[in-house]
Task: structure prediction
Amino acid sequence: KNEVEQSPQNLTAQEGEFITINCSYSVGISALHWLQQHPGGGIVSLFMLSSGKKKHGRLIATINIQEKHSSLHITASHPRDSAVYICAVSNYGGSQGNLIFGKGTKLSVKP
Amino acid sequence: GAVVSQHPSWVICKSGTSVKIECRSLDFQATTMFWYRQFPKQSLMLMATSNEGSKATYEQGVEKDKFLINHASLTLSTLTVTSAHPEDSSFYICSARDSTGANYGYTFGSGTRLTVV
Result:
């Protein structure tokens, strides 16, 4: 079993839909990260959170430490949101703070 | 915000040659840099962790003599793929942790797509 599990693996939505991507982890963490990887490969860090909820524009990330679960929500989705969304956790007790990655969720938003 | 500049963004080289990839932190001190490779439709795989001024720590199965990492300054780390083979063709990406910042955030380079022919 992977230490970081994401679901769904693939997601297709119509423009305007509300989207949720889930992430569960099985290790102790210092923080959880949501990353966005575009087709060209570049990665952008969307959120880093260790508790509660963060919001940035149409993106919302939540984390429940007790349940070891996080969700990334996209409101009013748009084709430009199409990308791979990756959940990662950091454990500073581990390899000098390396990230442990989920396998990613490929999101495709249709116009 | 924090920026990591990675160059080149893509490179094609002949088998047997060496390729150097650079990652620079532009507005913060990156005491730790992580180097990853990513095969198509797969997640990032950590290759090595480099700390400024010391030898890199390589993950199991990664040949340190083939993937040379140098982190000579707080703003520059390089990965050199030596004697490249077609199976080294992959997407390589670095990330840096801003250990001076309040949030210990990670910033990623834009990646380098290496094709060995």
User: Anything to note?
Assistant: DSSP finds no helices and eleven strands in chain B. The mean pLDDT of chain B is 90. The radius of gyration of chain B is 14 Å. The interface with chain A takes residues 32, 34, 38, 42-44, 46, 49, 51, 57, 91, 93, 95, 97, 103-111, 113 of chain B (CB under 8 Å).
